[in-house]
Design a protein that fits this description.
The chain has 157 residues and is an all-alpha fold. The chain has seven helices and no strands. The chain has a single domain, classed as AhpD-like (Up-down Bundle). Helix 1 runs antiparallel to helix 7 and helix 5 packs across helix 7. GO terms for molecular function: peroxiredoxin activity. InterPro entries: AhpD-like, AhpD_core, CMD-like.
Length: 157
């Protein structure tokens, strides 16, 4: 499959990507645990059907030491015993934040309170921002049909 569009070669697209990368860096420089960041990136990308991001983030997570058992179970995290309570809270928030169009009330108070039990305000800000940024990346990649499979860990920095 060939991509419909290359953001980086277009002046407007490149500028947009620059700002999204900057937002991503803020999240990655936060105290939100790296394992949580990887899991959320993967789960949001699975929900949105973004093969490009699933390829990238599963490979980056594995390269960072994430186990294949956990990577293989992200899509079924509710039934899996390999995730911490904090990771489960982040995954629930990520799912509800990604599926806001599917739920009349958006993110539930229960999901928010559960995440707030495990993460401080800075980490919550990073988590919410990560969910929003990943949804943005997913939409850019899905709309423009970015191909998957050739990503190498660390390729984009």
């Amino acid at each position: 499959m060939d991509a419909r569009f290359d953001h980086r070669s277009n002046p407007v697209g490149a500028k947009v990507v620059k700002y999204i990368v900057s937002a991503s860096k803020v999240v990655w420089d936060s105290t939100l645990p790296a394992a949580t960041r990887h899991l959320v990136e993967i789960r949001v990308s699975q929900i949105n059907g973004c093969a490009h991001c699933i390829d990238m983030h599963t490979k980056d997570a594995a390269h960072a030491g994430e186990t294949s058992a956990r990577l293989n179970l992200v899509a079924a995290w509710r039934e899996a015993t390999v995730f911490t309570d904090a990771e489960r809270a982040a995954l629930e928030l990520a799912e509800q934040g990604t599926r806001i169009a599917d739920a009349a009330g958006g993110v539930t108070d229960e999901a928010w309170a559960n995440a707030a039990k495990h993460y401080d305000e800075d980490q919550l800000a990073a988590l919410v921002s990560l969910i929003a940024v990943m949804n943005t990346w997913n939409r850019l990649n899905v709309i423009t049909q970015q191909p998957a499979g050739d990503y190498r860990p660390g390729q984009w920095g």
